[in-house]
Amino acid sequence: MSARILIVDDDRDHAESIADLLELRGHHAEVAGSGEAAAARFRETDFDLVFMDVKLPGMNGVETFFEFRRIRPRAQVMMMTGYSVAQLVAQAVENGALGVLHKPFAIDDLLATLEQVKPRGMVLVADDDPDFAASIVPLLAARGYSVEVARTGEEALLKAAAPGLDCLILDLRMPTLSGLEVYLRIKEAGRLIPTIFVTGFNDESDAELVRVKQLREGFLTKPFDPAVLLLAVEAAARRGAER
After folding, report:
1. At a CB cut-off of 8 Å and minimum separation 6, what does 233 contact?
2. Which CATH class name applies to 4-116?
3. Ordered mean pLDDT values, 10 residues apiece, the chain (243 residues)
4. What's the topology of domain 121-242?
5. Sequence ranges of the domains in the chain
């Protein structure tokens, strides 16, 4: 999957050499020569990854990184430096930068960073519990998934109609429509989206719960280990690919 990448470096030759390598790998790369120019471009375009030089004229790389995080809190930024600026780099990493590449760096290191943030697909989390959504959205985003949230069954049905959805996480108990009703309506419309049902109830006599467990889909009972959810999402994505 190709990524949109911004390289921020006042060394034009270095920036363009990185851009050329990334373009050869099928990605779309752009170059900015200052923090100010980079911030202006970042406001216009949602880049998947940014390679940011620490030493920049005017606004330095760390200041630019903080500006990026104000514009888009989930900005994925890898710092670059050829100088000893440990304090500046540590400040950026402590606040969410991916790390630092020390110039000159190998192409393998560059590509490893790209692999780290490679988008994995789109997940829709449908749950009326805001705390549950708030706990799993960052988890999925950190693993490279794009995440949408729905608070009701009707909202889930609307958002599930959008193209490019790879996995549904459906709470069984939601206002307006239950998770099972959402799933069945999507299926009736001719779409097969890999689904993980989640519930805080596990009454074996509940007819809806029995029916859900008979489906060839994922099922988790709250509370569950976040690692188990990630494995379930990856398994759902594999089911989708096989279908």
Report:
1. 123, 140, 145, 167, 169, 196
2. alpha beta
3. 89 92 91 96 92 90 91 86 63 65 74 64 88 82 80 91 86 87 90 88 69 82 84 78 61
4. Rossmann fold (3.40.50)
5. 4-116, 121-242
